[in-house]
Amino acid sequence: MAVPKVITLLSIVSAFALASCTLQPPVTEQYLMKNNFSGDLYDLGDGKVLIYNGTDPLLLGNDDRMNIGINGKPLGQLRSREYTVVDVGMGECEVNLARRSMFLIKSNHSIKINPGTRVIRVDPIFVTNMMTQTNQLPSWLEKYTYVKSPRTSD
């Protein structure tokens, strides 16, 4: 009789442990989201940047959710194969990335936004997060979801 109680208790503890692995979207501060992106690379630049999560969802499952902050202001959360377009302005930017795998994994990246900066890719990798200025649209952009306003907490 004690074995079923132990199994039930372990099941409940496991459920709470797995639920704690999800990363909640941040509360977004005011950022100028662009709602009229046509899919053309030349619509970007001069401070208007497309940010996409290039993670393969088959590899990471629910670990693909990336919280993004720019210059200390939360932007929102992008899942794999999602992108958004923001007007961050010109100059130096500090990009903060956070995701939860077994642990909370945070990273900070600096980027200089100039007239030619158009596309930024973010990826979770094993023990850190990666950000790359590609200035090329993802090859499968039509399969990506355009998030006009990334998920946020209310």
Model description:
There is one protein chain. The chain has 154 residues and is mostly beta strands. It contains two helices and ten strands, in the order αββαββββββββ. It has helices at 2-19, 57-60; strands at 32-33, 48-53, 66-70, 73-78, 82-87, 91-100, 104-113, 119-125, 128-133, 145-146. The radius of gyration is 18 Å and the shape is elongated.
Per-chain topology:
Layout: H1 2-19, E1 32-33, E2 48-53, H2 57-60, E3 66-70, E4 73-78, E5 82-87, E6 91-100, E7 104-113, E8 119-125, E9 128-133, E10 145-146
Parallel strand pairs: 2-8, 5-10
Antiparallel strand pairs: 1-5, 2-5, 3-4, 3-6, 6-7, 8-9
**Could you describe the largest sheet, including whether it forms a barrel?**
6 strands, mixed
Number of helices: 2
The share of residues in helices is 10-25%
Radius of gyration: 18 Å
Identify the overall geometry. Answer: elongated
What is the mean predicted local confidence, pLDDT? 78
Q: Assembly state here?
A: single chain
Topology pattern, helix = H, strand = E: HEEHEEEEEEEE
What key phrases describe this protein's structure?
single chain; 154 residues; mainly beta; six-stranded mixed beta sheet; four-stranded antiparallel beta sheet; elongated
